[in-house]
Specification:
Layout: H1 3-16, H2 21-28, H3 32-39, H4 47-57, H5 61-66, H6 75-121, H7 127-135, H8 138-154, E1 157-159, E2 166-167, H9 171-176, E3 178-180, E4 183-187, E5 194-200
Antiparallel strand pairs: 1-2, 1-5, 3-4, 4-5
Helix pairs in contact: 2-3, 6-7, 6-8
Length: about 200
């Protein structure tokens, strides 16, 4: 997805409807800085405001995602191309998130272990200080694992070992499932059978 091309297209459409960045931002209840980021290709409009943005700019979503006005003849081809680019962008983003999950997991373990090691080997005058140091890593470790698990839930899909269905499970299902690495024992929402399900990036 060519964000620079899309940004230039947004700027052209905004000027065509006689709106400043500030006026467009006000209509969308966002900051003009966000609009500036779109138009310079540094960010994309959030999906939650795309329809409203298109309505204001008098274009459709296919036009926005392609960065140009799509003719009726080219509509299907351009639409499919835009969808393919969005899928590829999601896959790239999911891979990045799963890498972040590993980093968070490792840091969380370190945050838990380091205070415990310090409490074991460093002399303290008062015993309660030693205990406090030893348990000080539990809360940040818990928070870290919470975010790591949340990333694992939303990034990519889980593939049922029975019917092959790929889906995004609930946070509750992820939390209470037995697991080996990123392979979890869960119930498939389609076939309703439990199996060991692998984490996959693509849905195809």
């Amino acid at each position: 997805m060519d964000q620079v091309k899309i940004g230039k297209f947004i700027a052209e459409c905004r000027k065509r409807v006689n709106l400043t960045q500030a006026q467009l931002a006000e209509k969308l209840n966002i900051t003009d800085r966000a609009v500036s980021k779109w138009e310079t290709g540094r960010a994309m409009p959030d999906s939650s405001i795309m329809l409203e943005l298109c309505s204001i700019l008098k274009i459709n979503v296919a036009d926005l995602l392609c960065g140009e006005v799509v003719t009726v003849e080219d509509y299907k081809e351009k639409y499919e191309e835009a969808l393919l680019l969005m899928v590829k962008e999601k896959e790239r983003s999911d891979r990045y998130l799963l890498m972040i999950e590993w980093i968070i997991g490792i840091l969380s373990v370190l945050v838990l272990l380091i205070p415990a090691i310090v409490a074991s080997y460093v002399p303290f005058e008062r015993e309660w200080v030693r205990v406090l140091v030893a348990i000080s890593g539990f809360l940040p470790c818990f928070v870290g694992f919470f975010f790591a698990l949340r990333i694992e839930q939303i990034a990519g899909y889980y593939e049922c070992g029975v019917c092959g269905h790929k889906y995004v499970p609930s946070y509750k299902a992820i939390s209470f499932a037995m697991h080996i690495g990123r392979t979890r024992y869960m119930k498939c929402p389609r076939c309703q059978k439990r199996s060991w399900q692998k984490k996959v990036i693509t849905k195809e």
